[in-house]
Design a protein that fits this description.
The complex is a heterotrimer. Chain A is an alpha/beta fold. Chain A has helices at residues 25-39, 55-58, 86-99, 118-121, 138-152, 157-170, 185-188, 218-224, 252-261, 276-285, 309-322, and strands at residues 4-11, 48-52, 79-82, 104-112, 193-195, 198-199, 208-217, 229-238, 268-270, 293-294, 328-335, 341-348. In chain A, the strands form 2 sheets. Chain A has a 10-stranded mixed β-sheet with strand order 3-2-4-7-1-8-12-11-9-10. Classes of the chains: A alpha/beta, B alpha/beta, C mainly beta. Strand 5 (194-197) of chain B pairs antiparallel with strand 14 (223-232) of chain C.
Chain lengths: 351, 380, 314
Amino acid sequence: MRDIAVVGFAQTPCVRETDGTTNGVEMLVPIFHEVLGGLGITKTDIGFWCSGSSDYLAGRAFSFVSAVDAIGAFPPIAESHVEMDAAWALYEAWVKLLCGEVDTALVYGFGKSSAGQLRRVMAMQLDPYLVTPLWPDSLGLAGIQARMGIETGLWDERAMASVAAQSRSAALSNPLAQLSGEVDADELLNLPYVADPLRRHDCAPITDGAATIVLAAGDRARELCERPAWITGFEHRTDTPSFGTRDLTTSPSAVAAGKAAGADGVQVAELHAPFTHQEILLRQALGLGDDVTVNPSGGVLAGNPMFAAGLARIGEAARRIHDGSATKVLGHATSGPLLQQNLVCVMEGRE
Amino acid sequence: MRPAAVVGTGQTHHAAKRLDVSMAGLCREAIDRAMADAGVDWSDIDAVVLGKAPDLFEGVMMPELFLADALGAVGKPLLRVHTAGSVGGSTGNVAASLVQSGVHDRVLAVAFEKQSESNAMWALSVPTPFTMPVHAGAGGYFAPHVRSYIRRASAPEHIGAMVAAKDRRNGARNPYAHLKQPDITVESVQASTMLWDPIRYDETCPSSDGACAVVISSEPTSGQAAWIRATAMRTEPTTFAGRDQVNPQAGQDAARALWKQAGITDPLSEVDAAEIYVPFSWFEPMWLENLGFTDIGQGWKLTEAGETEIGGRLPVNPSGGVLSSNPIGASGLLRFAEAAMQVMGTAGDHQVDGAQVALGHAYGGGSQFFAMWVVGSEKP
Amino acid sequence: MTRPLSAPLDVGFDYTRSLGPTLGRFLSDLRRRKVTGIRGSDGRVHVPPLEYDPVTAERLSEFVDVTATGVVRGWSWIPEPLEGQPLDRPFAWALIQLDGADTSLLHAVDAGSPDQMATGTRVRARWRPERVGAITDIECFEISDEPADPPAEADEVTMVTTPVNLHYTHSASPTEDPFLRGLMEGRLIAQRCPVCEKVYFPPRPACPVDGVPTTDQIELSDRGTITTYCVVNVPFLGQRIPPPYVSAYVLLDGADIPFLHLLLGVAPEDVRMGMRVEAVWKPREEWGPTMQNIDHFKPSGEPDAPFDSYSQHL
């Protein structure tokens, strides 16, 4: 197989609400400029484009179509789109590069969650016959999962609050974070529940944002980047949607993806965990020990641009290779209710 | 890039309303047929790719999630492609790339649409603030461009009716087609209601429930194989100053890349059958030109001469095409699957004799997303 | 700079879903105050019944009767219910393992207070008096050791209607905003791409060819040329004028891209590509931030534009 690396990454600030449209153009134009400019290339140097976004997040059909205006897609481009987090668009682009026809790909994801009522929108992902008609909200479902873990002894509310405090503290070094600061976990426990046993700090904020990654193969990657983040394992798996039939305190798909991608020995992991207990669950599922630095960016608890957040995790992890602070890192993305789909991208730096 | 082949195809009986099945049941009807055709079991499938047009059609956000059990995707990688109307084609191409790249050995590609869950006209025209409502309805978007084509190519008026009559007669030979009209004639098409002048009722595609599935493999599983000789995808913006809406550059570029990769220098003589995405009859001559089968302005002459009939120089849509069945998200994969069936010799009553090389084509959005493949009976 | 205009966007539709044999059996039975599960490949009884097995992907078919009483296996508390949820007062979401089932069903529990809820609590279905064959035939569950109401006769169902009502705020782009504000004053404001210098009307968030925001504002007249058109003869949902009428691409003088609008004041058979037209505005008091301020276009009486003058806009 060809060697392929993440060579560039850019993302917008994570903000509670942007002024722009739901088609992402206003958010994408500056980050395309940033990522291409940083590499010293232009759009004509990109061999394949792939994006991730959601019509239901935007509230209308074909919402991704106008996003290509941000590229300036004429002359025409080789392009594809997944109705998933853009981490899966990165996967599609990686496969495309493995085929050997092209040497570079630009991947992007965008989401304006503030346009709708996110808790209700996410109910549209559930079984449309027997579950969505009850309008279970994303916080209510995650609350059930959190309680099951608490009652099994896998975590407790104190541990969950510590994850939130750790995220806010780490995000102090991330100028693009939406939430950051030094908070005391014990004080967080004094706050009211939003979906008992979840408190506000246990849930990722509502965020508008976009992210982009440039992939390159072989010598092209070495030309573009001093320390490419070489992809050594890239795997994703799916669990049953029938969450009443499975053990919600673990994630078979995360376990399988982590194992197949070779998560052992990573120094840094960026986990896409929209709820505090899910960070603990994922650490366990991926076998990440105490020596692994988790979410140095603050993770999605510090800013969660839907459909871009998983891609941004891989970008944030790759950044630690680019800046020389780590030699083996992991980026994780999730999709679907209660961690139904999980993706793991392991990257390494080479001398 | 290692070779990959279609080793099994399956589709549903397409109909306006498949009220006998759920969405899962609809998908499985196609999947079970494709897996039986390929002679494979669930343990043989490494990954699943699902394609579907806008989620608003079925009112489910990312339906592949709730369908994961029915798709046999539990414990496996599952991708969801959405590239507007071309999505069925893109689904085939993405599934092919998963095998060609060496990542997987066997991949299941599935595409579906259950239009009867809602109303596509509604879903595509939810009134958006500040946006001018289109006063024209579904065909009204494309009808002005058809008029432009007729003017530019100086095409005679009956060409559209000829395409419609041919595709519906072909559909009558396809057991899975939604519309089967063996007795349709050019005259009866011309006598049908003018909906969006210059497009008549009989020249428009139906609204269908349906699904399609293909198994793509690095090696034959049951003997038959349609080897994927080339794939191409191109995109351009919906509108921009000076855009050619009749003969979009993205389609031309995709076709050029496709023929080059397939080693085809003269498509008209080297391709034995073409399944082209023709939702309105006039798009047959338009796409014949866009794909490079003829020179600009000459596509209608191929149609008029009867060369796109089964038995002609280039049979186009022997299955009956989109004009006979249109489960939107699946329509592109149906084109790709029907092309594979032709070179595998499994097309039954609509088989083109001796077909060895075939084209599958899909487009979507405002004629701006293109996905295509060429399949052949010989391993490359 | 002021924020771009925004307005509500509601997405509402009553989806009509055919059920097939498994879901159809389950919902028909709910209508009869009965709960039916299905046996999976590993012997577990799944409630609600699964159409396909999560382990083997095989189609499941062995129905098993269970009761409408069971045990809470996991729960969360919703202090502020959202639109569409089973209860409009604080309630619990719970995974409930019904007696006779091995897996759990998601539903609401009307417990009054989180203090009443615990994993292991026994609950029973509270049936809705009027049942239609939907998961909402169970209004919710309630804490009780008693059996639920006994079964009743009801006809089979094969379809379920599931209403979806979502509410969004749709924003214009910063480049579109001056155009919309111009319309409120009866002015047609286009923007020019700083790279290719093409004039976009309506303006776009970015030039689709160059990927940069359009910048210079240009005011256009309300006259132009029909590039191409179709005659609409078909009635459809949401139509506002009786057919036949003409939907036409209008290329305003000075613009580099045509847009679709209505052409009236001329018989459809007399419309021609290249016809010169002018805007007919609605009364000023009806104006808002929309192109619908122009009621329609009508022929201006000028000679037709030559084909070459607009052929590159087809």
